[in-house]
Task: inverse folding
């Protein structure tokens, strides 16, 4: 019994070890195979940044995330799906340009490219993509521009810039930040929801248009100086001294204001 | 001969004439001329006194220059009305310049301020007086005409980019084609809705603006994808 149990124990122990080893090998092979099948590549590069930095990124398809950080350095990381696109950033006198459309012109079949870019918080950011979500956060600069030609959500978080432009055709847009004096803010979508999250009180002149849904929720900014026009398709008015200009258009979606 | 000489000189002349044949001859000729003149022109006027003659001429001229003495002061008064001093003239020019500048600035401001908004999307009711005047004169289009022109131009551009996209879309992968089609459908839906509303109510300001915006979006989408 003792022998049996030992032998059984011995057999079981060796079997377990073998099984574990085999599983590890299979997992490793599968993982490697999967990565190879996906053909994912990784690209990473850093650039020193001066007092004035501008990032221009034109992507075809894929996610783009831009984060401001407290370092005078631009760090670009890209994950390239197969068939891998060419990434060729150019840095010239404080301006970093990544143009995936130009660099891959004439190539019909190009895999998604997902960018994760960290920039000094004072960087002027200009991002455009054909398809995919855009996330920009922690930027305090002169300009933030985010445009998705077709579908993709745009999320702008903790943005303090005197010029902000966010546009897409399909997808939600969130602007979370502060409106600067004499700043200009334009947010437009064809189909999706637009949310504006700004501090109370904020000072701006508003033209908000939602012609199809007529759903414009001003939240805490709904007051005497705001006037509906065109049977509620548009609201115009002023909050505070109206120093900033805020223009929001959502052709087939809703607009809402949230307190920050 | 004229008895102008005194006795002493007259005697001397007579002595000379008696001795000199040539002078005596000249004297005789002169005497004959004087006699002839006296005998043939008894009614002729006296030899003119130059001073008296000039005085008469002057009187005649003056009398001709001032035939009507009364109207003259009126002309002078009128002339005085148009006579300005240099400071007056400078002030007048400054005033004219100031007024014309103000009018120009007002006109330009009222024109450009309104056109900074979307002129195409506006109605005739929301036009400024200056714009209405300009439209009546024919210097600018009415909002409806301007919108029609703009839409025609946008449609031409859309046709061009649409052809470009049609040529290239075979090279796209399936995901791109799907994304493009889905988005262009959404824009077309909006364009159709706005066109219908404008057919019923051409004065609808917001719809005009939205149609313009949707067509711009469509053109931009086509342009972006045509680069693939």
Result:
């Amino acid at each position: 019994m003792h022998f049996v149990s030992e032998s059984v124990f011995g057999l079981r122990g060796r079997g377990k070890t073998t099984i574990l080893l085999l599983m590890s090998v299979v997992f490793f092979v599968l993982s490697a195979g999967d990565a190879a099948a996906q053909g994912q590549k990784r690209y990473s590069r850093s650039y020193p940044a001066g007092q004035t930095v501008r990032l221009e990124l034109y992507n075809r398809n894929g996610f783009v995330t831009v984060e401001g950080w407290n370092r005078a350095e631009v760090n670009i990381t890209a994950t390239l799906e197969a068939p891998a696109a060419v990434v060729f950033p150019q840095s010239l006198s404080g301006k970093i340009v990544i143009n995936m459309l130009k660099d891959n012109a004439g190539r019909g079949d190009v895999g998604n490219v997902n960018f994760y870019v960290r920039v000094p918080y004072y960087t002027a950011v200009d991002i455009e993509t054909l398809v995919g979500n855009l996330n920009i956060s922690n930027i305090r600069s002169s300009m933030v521009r985010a445009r998705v030609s077709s579908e993709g959500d745009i999320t702008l978080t903790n943005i303090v810039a005197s010029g902000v432009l966010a546009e897409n055709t399909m997808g939600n847009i969130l602007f979370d930040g502060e409106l600067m004096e004499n700043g200009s803010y334009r947010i437009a979508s064809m189909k999706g929801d637009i949310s504006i999250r700004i501090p109370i009180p904020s000072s701006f002149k508003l033209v908000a248009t939602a012609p199809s849904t007529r759903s414009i929720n001003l939240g805490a900014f709904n007051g005497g100086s705001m006037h509906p026009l065109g049977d509620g398709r548009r609201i115009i008015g002023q909050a505070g001294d109206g120093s900033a200009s805020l223009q929001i258009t959502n052709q087939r979606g809703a607009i809402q204001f949230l307190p920050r | 001969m004229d008895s102008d000489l005194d006795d002493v000189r007259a005697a001397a002349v007579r002595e000379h004439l008696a001795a000199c044949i040539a002078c005596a001859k000249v004297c005789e000729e002169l005497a004959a001329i004087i006699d002839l003149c006296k005998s043939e022109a008894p009614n002729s006027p006296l030899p003119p006194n130059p001073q008296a003659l000039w005085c008469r001429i002057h009187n005649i001229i003056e009398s001709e220059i001032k035939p009507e003495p009364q109207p003259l002061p009126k002309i002078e008064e009128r002339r005085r009305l148009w006579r300005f001093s240099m400071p007056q003239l400078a002030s007048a020019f400054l005033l004219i310049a100031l007024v014309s500048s103000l009018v120009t600035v007002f006109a330009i401001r009222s024109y450009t301020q309104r056109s900074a908004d979307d002129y195409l999307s506006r109605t005739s009711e929301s036009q400024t007086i200056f714009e209405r005047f300009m439209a009546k004169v024919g210097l600018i289009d009415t909002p409806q005409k301007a919108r029609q022109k703009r839409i025609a131009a946008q449609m031409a551009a859309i046709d061009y980019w649409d052809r470009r996209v049609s040529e290239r879309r075979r090279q796209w992968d399936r995901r791109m084609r799907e994304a493009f089609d889905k988005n262009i459908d959404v824009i077309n839906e909006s364009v159709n809705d706005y066109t219908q509303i404008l057919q019923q109510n051409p004065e609808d300001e917001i719809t005009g603006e939205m149609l313009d915006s949707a067509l711009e979006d469509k053109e931009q989408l086509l342009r972006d994808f045509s680069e693939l």
